[in-house]
Design goal:
Layout: E1 5-9, H1 13-25, E2 29-33, H2 36-46, E3 50-54, H3 62-71, E4 79-84, H4 91-97, E5 102-105, H5 113-124
Parallel strand pairs: 1-2, 1-3, 3-4, 4-5
Helix pairs in contact: 2-3
Bound molecules: manganese (II) ion (MN).
Length: 131
């Protein structure tokens, strides 16, 4: 079975480690960056199945980085899921307007996180099961 490749762009080290551990335990190959700039560089190199994009990052923010990925023919097909800690009304709409394909709030639910990621990748690939 093909291993899903995930790129996490997250400046909170505790959350970065938690998400990395969960995904690796589920057989995913995980790359990570702590800034949008480094994340954009890695996204172009790795072309991962899914990018987990923290919205609040030092320097360039995650939604600006998402817009850059979605405007670039080399990366516009990548599935980008926003991660935000300050879930406010309008945040999800802002994420979707920036081109994000999905939206998750922190703290993540460790029991359902990996299944959610797997499902988002399946939906993005048009492989969502009918049952
Ligand atoms: Mn952050």
């Amino acid at each position: 079975m093909k291993r899903n490749r995930i790129l996490i762009i997250e400046d909170n080290l505790l959350n970065l480690e938690l998400v990395t551990d969960l995904l690796e335990a589920n057989g995913c190959l995980v790359g990570s960056a702590q800034t949008a700039e480094e994340g954009l560089r890695l996204a172009r190199v790795l072309l991962p199945d899914l990018v987990l994009m923290d919205v609040s990052l030092p320097g360039m923010d995650g939604l600006s980085a998402t817009k850059i990925l979605k405007a670039d023919p080399a990366t516009h097909h990548l599935t980008v899921v926003a991660l935000t800690a300050n879930a406010m009304k309008g945040d999800e709409e802002a994420a979707l307007n920036a081109g994000c394909d999905g939206y998750l709030t922190k703290p993540i639910d460790t029991r359902t996180f990996c299944a959610t990621i797997t499902k988002l990748i399946a939906v993005a690939n048009g492989h969502l099961l009918a049952h």
